[in-house]
Amino acid sequence: MKITYHGHSVVSVETVSGAKLLFDPFFTGNSLADLRARDVKADYLLITHGHNDHVGDMISIAKKNKATIIAIPEIIHFATKNGVENTHAMNMGGSFEFPFGRVKMVYAQHSSGYELGSDMVYMGEPAGFILEVDGKTLYHAGDTAYFSDLSLLSEDFDIDVAFLPIGDNFTMGIKDAVKASSTINAKKVIPIHYNTFPVIQQNPQEFVDLLPDNVGKVMAVGETLEF
Ligand code: NI
Ligand code: MN
């Protein structure tokens, strides 16, 4: 599979069979993004939680591409109410075999609400995703704090590549992300959720330098890696 980083928590995956998956499609308002929402191609949108910097352009991209949204039921309800036709609701600890591979929704310690005008819409619990695709295992952590149950992931999965937030303030910072990396024991760890806003300014190389040799990798925005 080919994995491309688009800034913040936006990660796209193209499988060997050509399925286009996209995590947390925040393009409009994302100062780092390399694409405009209207140019994005996707078959599946995986949404970790309901904050605006993760839901992002979910509705417009799903409608334009007739993409299927994979998320917790509260986010699916929001999507359906906003006219999205193709959805697949999952909940914590559940996994499902999709045509492109297997997805498990896993815990994240965070919050999840969507700011809509003066309202805060309830969007369920925040999550992460484990994908088993093309014989590889990928983990997108969403916006999580470091917590000890991350160790459950390495009990069940040999993670080839993990995307972990390092921005601090809203999520783990570098120090906790280093602990998380060792807990989940991923072969490759890629930092996300930094430098988008002033309060999450970080030097991602500092994170990589604290990891064992050849584990950490800073992906430039627009960079593609093959796994
Ligand atoms: Ni968040
Ligand atoms: Mn966030």
Structural notes for this entry:
This protein is α/β, with parallel strands linked by helices. The protein has a single domain (2-226), classed as Ribonuclease Z/Hydroxyacylglutathione hydrolase-like (Metallo-beta-lactamase, Chain A, 4-Layer Sandwich). 20% of the residues lie in helices and 29% in strands. The protein has 6 helices and 15 strands. The chain has helices at 52-55, 58-65, 73-81, 151-156, 174-184, 204-210, and strands at 2-5, 11-14, 20-23, 44-46, 68-71, 87-89, 95-98, 101-107, 113-116, 119-122, 127-133, 136-140, 161-165, 188-192, 224-226. The strands form 3 sheets. The chain has a 7-stranded mixed β-sheet with strand order 6-5-4-3-2-1-15, with helices on one face. It has a 6-stranded mixed β-sheet with strand order 7-8-11-12-13-14. Helix 5 crosses helix 6 (204-210). The protein is globular. The structure holds nickel (II) ion (NI) and manganese (II) ion. Nickel (II) ion is lined by residues 49, 51, 54, 110, 143, 170.
